[in-house]
Amino acid sequence: MGNLRDVSNEAGFLNGQFLLAMPGMEDSRFARSVIYICAHSDNGAMGLIINRAQEMEFGEILVQLGVLDEQQVIMMPERTRDFLVRNGGPVEMRRGFVLHSDDYLTDSTMPVAEEICLTGTVDILRAISSGRGPRRALMTLGYSGWASGQLENEIANNGWLTCQAPHDLLFDTKIESTYDRLLAYMGIDPSRLAMVAGHA
Question: CB–CB of 85/54 below 8 Å?
Fold first, then answer.
């Protein structure tokens, strides 16, 4: 799982916001991605792509980490067994992070925004698998990171749109439509967005 000590606790102005990749995004790894910013400071930024599925399933991760054996995974409630694992970004893709509601807290839990926390230890996976986890959660493998000033520069160059992150969209599992639904939430017509990006 992830070590959250790498990430600054100082709340930046983008903490708890969504980044929405503009159509002209030069880095294909982020095309049509929606990223939730977990940490933003003068030292850089860290976020999780929430609208890309990971090939590895939750049960496989639990078995790999020794949390449960294969028989125990089969016996998990369907809702838990089908817990969607997302591809959080291109950095350290073997590390796991759980973004969740603030009704689950441990010593390694980091507050991100109002009612939202981030935990990167195996304990939360045990809790989720046994039904003792947070009310709402999403898990990613990997994350997206920016050096000092890099994200601000990309935003200034029309690489990203920023907006508030409604919890319903954040934790929703219909991730194929997250990008378009977020545009609709912002009141943006996708065809006009392409025109704006083309004239940036």
Answer: yes
